[in-house]
């Protein structure tokens, strides 16, 4: 089996590269698909480009810690995501029936990831290794960073940072924050000292910082205890979150959870055209890992195999849409030549039928 173009998923793959240790291990609630429509592929390739040794643990068995130890202890951190879809949306229909398929798993098999995958995976990592930095990101972590209404529980849940026991949450588009975090960890900073990176959130103690009051650079929103019982307070908190989701003028937001404050730093600055071009020029294999071939592949690749991402963000600001909270309202676009170069690669792929879709 030819795995050489993909990042390591086993100790054997690491040995092929002459690595006895990884810098970062990405744990994902979806199969390993090395395509730029998948956040895990982008983050892993970006870290590789920055010179780090990166490995992938996809769809681990969460019933015990064995899969979480498969690549050993990383030098710098575990990075955890549920994948491109929230695990609850992936598992259940809007009428709360269990879905029979998972397009992001081998052969479309359902049930290979747990409910609330980010929380489960992060806690398994904590069981497997003591004192290892744990960083969570992706859509599930991003959209659950504050106290939030959960449709499945029909209740307000606390920030996912509390239940996952992660050190840092990367929200929105993760390229800039993860490169900054990696540089700080690599230079010897303790993960608890990394509190000032845009596009991240963490839990701080009340005594740790001046976190109690709103000021020129920070806003305190109603606490978890307030928003879980008072709809007006919930609406007030959400309004501030929405208004401050602005990389230019957005402030730090604080929300009390018990005796700790959730601290959300302002959003990461949008990628400029050159940075977008760099991200999409990384050496993606553009398909799923061959280990899934025997099971029938990963159905989700069909939607994106011949698509090209031209831009991110939307200025629409529709009240029912979460895009503002994840990609932001500022349009980030690639250059024409970058898009054309990607199109030229697509036409030589085996299954290309002559058209490129959204
Ligand atoms: S629904 Fe979302 S993506 Fe569509 S226009 Fe509204 S904000 Fe933009």
What is the second-level CATH architecture?
3-Layer(aba) Sandwich
Give the C-level CATH assignment: Alpha Beta
Low-confidence stretches: none
Q: What is the global morphology? A: globular
Structure description:
It is a single chain. The chain has 358 residues and is α/β, with parallel strands linked by helices. It has one domain: Cobalamin-binding domain (Rossmann fold). Helix content is 28%, strand content 15%. The protein is built from 13 helices and 13 strands. The relative contact order is 0.13. The mean pLDDT is 94. Bound molecules: iron/sulfur cluster (SF4). The site of iron/sulfur cluster has 6 residues, from loops. The site of iron/sulfur cluster (SF4) has 6 residues, from loops.
Short account of what is shown:
By secondary structure, this protein is of the alpha/beta class.
List keywords for this structure.
9-stranded mixed β-sheet; alpha/beta; binds iron/sulfur cluster; single chain; 28% helix
Describe the secondary-structure layout.
Blueprint: H1 11-16, E1 24-28, H2 39-49, E2 54-58, E3 77-81, H3 87-91, H4 117-128, E4 134-136, H5 138-143, E5 148-150, E6 155-157, H6 160-164, E7 168-170, H7 175-186, E8 200-205, E9 218-221, H8 224-227, H9 231-243, E10 252-257, E11 260-264, H10 273-280, H11 301-304, E12 311-312, H12 323-326, E13 332-333, H13 336-346
Parallel strand pairs: 1-2, 1-3, 3-4, 4-7, 9-10
Antiparallel strand pairs: 5-6, 7-8, 8-11, 10-11, 12-13
Helix pairs in contact: 2-7
Residues 314, 316-318, 321, 323 line the site of iron/sulfur cluster (SF4).
């Amino acid at each position: 089996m030819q795995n050489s173009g993909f990042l390591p998923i086993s100790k054997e793959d690491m040995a092929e590269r002459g690595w006895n240790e990884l810098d970062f291990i990405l744990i994902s609630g979806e199969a390993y698909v090395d395509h730029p429509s998948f956040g895990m592929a982008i983050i892993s390739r970006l870290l590789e480009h920055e010179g780090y040794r990166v490995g992938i643990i996809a769809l681990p068995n969460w019933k015990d810690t064995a899969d979480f130890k498969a690549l050993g202890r990383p030098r710098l951190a575990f990075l955890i995501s549920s994948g491109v879809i929230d695990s609850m949306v992936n598992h259940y229909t809007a009428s709360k029936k269990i879905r029979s398929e998972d397009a992001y798993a081998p052969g479309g098999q359902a049930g290979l990831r747990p409910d609330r995958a980010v929380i489960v995976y992060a806690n398994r990592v904590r069981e497997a290794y003591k004192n290892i930095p744990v960083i969570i990101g992706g859509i599930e972590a991003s959209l659950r960073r504050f106290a939030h209404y959960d449709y499945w529980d029909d209740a307000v849940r606390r920030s996912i940072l509390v239940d996952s026991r992660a050190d840092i949450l990367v929200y929105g588009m993760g390229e800039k924050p993860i490169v900054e975090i990696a540089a700080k960890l690599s230079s010897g900073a303790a993960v608890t000292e990394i509190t000032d990176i845009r596009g991240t959130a963490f839990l701080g103690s009340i005594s740790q910082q001046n976190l109690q009051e709103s000021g020129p650079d920070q806003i305190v929103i109603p606490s978890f205890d307030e928003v879980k019982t008072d709809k007006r307070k919930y609406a007030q908190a959400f309004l501030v979150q929405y208004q401050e989701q602005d990389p230019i003028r957005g402030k730090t937001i604080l929300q009390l959870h018990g005796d700790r404050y959730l601290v959300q730093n302002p959003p990461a600055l949008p990628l400029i055209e050159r940075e977008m071009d760099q991200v999409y020029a990384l050496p993606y294999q553009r398909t799923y890992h061959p280990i899934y071939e025997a099971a029938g592949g990963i159905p989700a690749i069909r939607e994106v195999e011949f698509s090209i991402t031209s831009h991110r963000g939307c200025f629409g600001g529709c009240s029912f849409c979460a895009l503002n909270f994840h990609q932001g309202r500022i349009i980030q676009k690639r250059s024409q030549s970058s898009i054309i170069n990607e199109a030229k690669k697509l036409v030589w792929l085996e299954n290309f039928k002559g058209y490129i879709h959204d």
